[in-house]
Specification:
single chain, binds zinc ion, 308 residues, four-stranded antiparallel sheet
């Protein structure tokens, strides 16, 4: 017998008002008593306690009320379980709604696989010349494309710590990206190409600055076309350095839809689990109802008898 079982058995026999049984350890050596904090009661006291019967517990009306509350709880459980077991129930309704939402999300995901290519219009291989980077504070970058000179510099930010310069982004001081959009570009693509060039020129200028600050070589023979190469995945314009914003947007959208899909799947699984759990506990709940009804009848009989 384990210590725990021995201890529990002792406690139980104490609780119902009996002395701890000396023969509670039949498997152990005879008459060797495992140590507990309480010595066994002398025989005459043990007999007195045994005669006095169980300690008073909840009695009479209080016991009946407690049993009635328990019965109400079990009845509620049974009604929930019966509802879950019926053909139409709120769990199935919610699962149906979640399935509908999942279908929509999965359609959106499929649509994402079949998006038409991004718009594209080529830029000429016009060389980018007169690259000049000043690494002083604040850094400055200049270059020329097709006679258009671009100039970028950082804003000086002395505010935060008084004497320390805070690194900021480059700001375009001169040069017009719109002037680089080729005349043959379809009119409906011009605003998008202008927006792309504005961003790509900024990325290019920042790369020139960073290379200079890191002591690296500047890119050899860059051209205007390098600022807007076609993306092998979506066909749209890639920025200088090969980043495609359209693909990044598509990835973010796919990530969002996948997260939504996973969320809906686990919600639907939780509804199914809950429904199964409720159905499975129905037989047990019915048995518990019979038990509590039996106890309640006995308690009512006892109360009636004590009042006579
Ligand atoms: Zn792309």
């Amino acid at each position: 017998m384990s210590w725990l079982r021995f201890w529990k058995q002792n406690e139980e026999s104490e609780e119902i008002g009996q002395a701890p049984a000396n023969d509670a350890t039949p498997a152990g050596p005879p008459r060797v008593r495992l140590t507990t904090n309480q010595p066994p009661l002398p025989p005459h006291l043990a007999a007195t306690r045994a005669a006095s019967g169980p300690r008073p517990r909840l009695e009479g009306q209080a016991l009946i009320e407690r049993l009635q509350r328990r019965k109400q709880d079990i009845l509620f459980e049974i009604s929930q379980s019966e509802q879950a077991a019926s053909e139409e129930n709120p769990w199935r309704d919610r699962m149906d709604l979640l399935t509908e939402a999942l279908t929509t999300v999965e359609d959106d995901l499929k649509a994402l696989d079949n998006v038409p290519p991004e718009p594209f219009a080529p830029l000429p291989e016009t060389p980018i010349t007169d690259i000049a980077v000043n690494t002083a504070d604040p850094p400055e970058v200049a270059f020329t494309i097709d006679g258009q000179t671009f100039h970028y510099s950082e804003d000086i930010d002395w505010a935060e710590r008084g004497h320390q310069v805070i690194r900021t982004e480059l700001v375009r001081r001169a040069g017009d990206p719109a002037a680089l959009v080729p005349a043959p570009t379809p009119d409906d693509l011009k605003p998008a190409l202008m927006a792309h060039l504005t961003e790509s020129l900024f990325v290019f200028a920042s790369d020139l600055r960073d290379r200079a600050l890191d002591g690296e070589f500047q890119p050899a023979h860059p051209t205007l076309a390098d600022l807007a190469r076609p993306c092998p995945n979506c066909g749209g314009w890639m920025e200088w350095g090969g980043v495609c914003q359209a693909c990044a947007r598509r990835r973010a959208e796919r990530f969002r839809l996948m997260a939504e899909r996973n969320g809906l799947l686990s919600k639907r699984a939780a509804e199914a689990d809950e429904m199964t759990r409720l159905i499975e506990r129905l037989p047990l709940a019915r048995r518990r109802l019979i038990d509590v009804e039996t106890e309640l009848a006995a308690a009512e009989r006892n109360l009636a008898a004590s009042e006579r």
